[in-house]
């Protein structure tokens, strides 16, 4: 089935006794055993599995062409479950502009447990040269946050396979509609489902999808079920509901993202625009090869200094000045002040998440804020 169809039907795993067309919310934390001690409904205890989480995991696994998926209570816990599943002393090759929450996890929680290098992964020779005997994971984020750098998934997969290293891809900015890293050779895909999958800025969540149910996946499932950072059945229900419209929401995000990028590109107050869909983007060809469309995320540099960027962000009326992305409402933020004093993000950079409002209203708002 095509993604539009899967997104709607993959969550209907069981026929409900009351004939519901959509899967009801199952809030029970525990499930009946039969006389032999087995669990006739397929679930034992809600932390281990429950009907709503199974429906969600099945849907996302199918959308990403994986064998299985594991849902978590946030994107951060999804990524952390993979780091926790590595043996102490393992080395990770991570991107230099890795999502700052993950960078912070490695630098604080895992500082004495794992080794890591943060490198420019658009430089494939550097990726190859960074492999050490104890390298166990190449973690890629593409498109990246906040510079929208695009990394060649297929090329990284080749490098990782040859060296027998697990290759995981944070594909949050693309969503399963625009990019499927497993089809390009990734072992594991990660999404912050707080973003496009949820799509309405009202559910926190994260997910890992695996190409194969291998030994590492067993460890990850153990971290999920015994570690217990799982989403509630209600969150799983909401997310499953959101995913039904994902393919159509992505069309709107991509269309608005592209038009905003083109508008900003031609604006006298704008120095540069980072959007993978612009032919001026340094990795536009790679983006064209591995993405179906270019998404709703973009960043731009304004003329002047950090103060000027903050002024623009404070002047918008329709865009919400807030962090995060992927919701129906457009968001804008001065990224350097979110990331704190050690960030390498340029002070003049403004990040935009294009929502689903009418493009004319969005452009008019940016026009008055920049003017
Ligand atoms: C938001 C985000 C995360 C973290 O997800 P949370 O749901 O906020 O914990 C990870 N990676 C990327 C690219 C993100 O945008």
Element layout with pairings:
Blueprint: H1 3-9, H2 51-63, E1 68-72, H3 75-84, E2 91-95, H4 100-108, E3 115-119, H5 124-129, E4 135-141, H6 153-162, E5 166-170, H7 175-178, E6 188-192, E7 206-210, H8 215-227, H9 233-243, H10 246-265, E8 270-274, H11 284-290, E9 297-302, H12 306-315, E10 320-321, E11 331-334, H13 335-339, E12 349-353, H14 359-370
Parallel strand pairs: 2-3, 2-4, 4-5, 5-6, 10-11
Antiparallel strand pairs: 1-7, 6-7, 8-9, 9-12, 11-12
The site of pyridoxal-5'-phosphate (PLP) has 15 residues, from helix 3.
Protein name: Aminotransferase class V-fold PLP-dependent enzyme
GO molecular function: transaminase activity
InterPro entries: Cys/Met-Metab_PyrdxlP-dep_enz (IPR000277), Cys_met_metab_PP (IPR054542), PyrdxlP-dep_Trfase (IPR015424), PyrdxlP-dep_Trfase_major (IPR015421), PyrdxlP-dep_Trfase_small (IPR015422)
Could you please describe the fold and organization of this structure?
- The protein is built from 14 helices and twelve strands.
- The chain is an alpha/beta fold.
- Helix 7 (175-178) links the parallel strand 5 (166-170) and strand 6 (188-192).
- The longest helix is centred in the last third of the chain and has 20 residues, at 246-265.
- Bound molecules: pyridoxal-5'-phosphate.
- The site of pyridoxal-5'-phosphate has 15 residues, from helix 3.
């Amino acid at each position: 089935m095509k993604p539009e169809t899967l997104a709607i039907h993959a969550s209907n795993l069981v026929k409900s006794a009351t004939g519901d067309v959509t899967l009801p919310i199952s809030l029970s934390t525990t499930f009946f055993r039969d006389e032999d001690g087995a669990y006739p409904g397929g679930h034992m205890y809600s932390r281990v599995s429950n009907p709503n989480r199974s429906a969600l995991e099945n849907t996302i696994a199918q959308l990403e062409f994986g064998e299985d998926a594991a849902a978590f209570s946030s994107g951060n816990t999804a990524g952390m479950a993979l780091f926790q599943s590595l043996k102490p002393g393992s080395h990770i090759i991570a991107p230099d502009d890795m999502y700052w929450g993950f960078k912070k996890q490695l630098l604080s929680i895992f500082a004495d447990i794992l080794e890591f290098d943060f490198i420019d992964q658009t430089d494939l020779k550097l990726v190859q040269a960074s492999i050490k005997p104890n390298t166990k994971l190449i973690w890629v984020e593409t498109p990246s946050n906040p510079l929208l750098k695009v990394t060649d998934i297929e090329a990284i997969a080749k490098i990782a396979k040859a060296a027998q290293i697990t290759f995981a891809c944070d594909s949050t900015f693309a969503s399963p509609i625009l990019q499927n890293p497993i089809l390009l050779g990734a072992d594991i895909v990660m999404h912050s489902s707080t973003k496009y999958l949820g799509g309405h800025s009202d559910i926190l969540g994260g997910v890992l999808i695996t190409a194969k149910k291998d030994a590492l996946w067993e460890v990850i499932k153990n971290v999920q079920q015994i570690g217990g950072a799982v989403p509630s059945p209600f969150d799983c229900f909401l997310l499953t509901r959101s995913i039904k419209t994902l393919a159509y929401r992505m069309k709107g995000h991509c269309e608005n993202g592209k038009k905003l990028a083109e508008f900003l590109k031609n604006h006298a107050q704008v120095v540069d625009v980072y959007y993978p869909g612009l032919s001026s983007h340094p990795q536009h060809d790679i983006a064209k090869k591995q993405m179906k469309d270019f998404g709703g995320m973009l960043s731009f540099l304004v003329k002047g200094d950090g103060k000027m960027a903050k002024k623009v962000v404070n002047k918008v009326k329709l865009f919400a000045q807030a962090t995060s992305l992927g919701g129906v409402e457009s968001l804008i933020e001065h990224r350097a002040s979110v990331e704190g004093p050690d960030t390498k993000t340029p002070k003049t950079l403004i990040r935009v998440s294009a929502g689903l409002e009418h493009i004319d209203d969005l452009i008019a708002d940016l026009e008055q804020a920049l003017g």
